[in-house]
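seq:
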Amino acid sequence: MKVLDWDDASDALLADYRDLTDSALRRVSEPEDGLYIAESLTILGRALDAGHHPRSVLTSAKWLPQLGALLGEHSAPEDLPVIVGSDEQLEQLTGFHLHRGTLASMHRPELPGVDAVLVGASRVVVLEDIVDHTNVGALFRSVAGMGADAVIVSPRCADPLYRRSVRVSMGTVLQVPWTRAESTSDLVDSLHHNGFVVAGLALGPSSVDFDQWVATAPERVALVLGSEGPGLSPKTLALCDVLVEIPLAHGVDSLNVAAAGAVALHALRASQA
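struct:
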C-alpha cells in the first residue's frame, strides 16, 4: 500500500469520503461515479473476498498495522493509496466519528442480468421500492442467514451498496448475488420463464395464510416484499401468482418489512428441511 499523509492526499481522493452523512448527495454521487463505501476492516475484508477492487482507503495511524495485514492477505496493489489522518481530520471530512477504524472507496462491480442471478436459485427475494437503507441492509442479512439464493431490487429501491445498507447487512450485501430489474413486468416474466412461483407478501381479502401455504410451497419461490407503509403496488399485486400474509396476534396487523422478510424466509427454509 502507498501510505499518504493527510497533506499529501489529493482533493480527488479525499472527495470520495466527503460528507458521507448526506444521504441525498451520496445516493446520486456514488452510483454515478461507480463507487461505494466499505466501512470497517470487516466489511473491507468481505469486499476483497468478493473480488471487489479498492480505489483508496482512509484510516488513522493506529489502524495501519491491521489494515496492512488485511491488504497483504488479499494481495492488494502496492500502489493502493492509503490516506492517514487524525481522528479530528477524518470526522471533519466524513461528518461522523470513524470509530470503526477504516473506510474504503470501492469500485462498483458490474451487476449481472436477472436471468444470470436466477441460475441455480430456488429461493429469491424481490424488493419493490423499499427506500429505507437500514431495511434493505437488514433484508440482505436475513437472505444470507436463512440461506436464500439471491435478491432482485426494483428500479426505485434504495441502493444496497449505500454505506448504511452495507453496514447493517454486516457485509452480506457483498456476498449475496443481487441485481436491479428494469421493470416489474419484465422481472415477473423472467421469474416465470425460470420456473418461479411469485408470492407477494401482502394484506388483503385475497391473501392466504402463510403458514398454510408454506406447508406445500413449490420448489422455486420468489418472495416479493413491498415498500414501508404502502406495501406492494397495485400493478405488482396483480402480477403475483399468490398473495400471502403472516398470521399475527394481539391485533397487530403487520410487521416491519425487514422483520416480515426474516420470518417468511425462516418458514420457507423450514419447508425445505
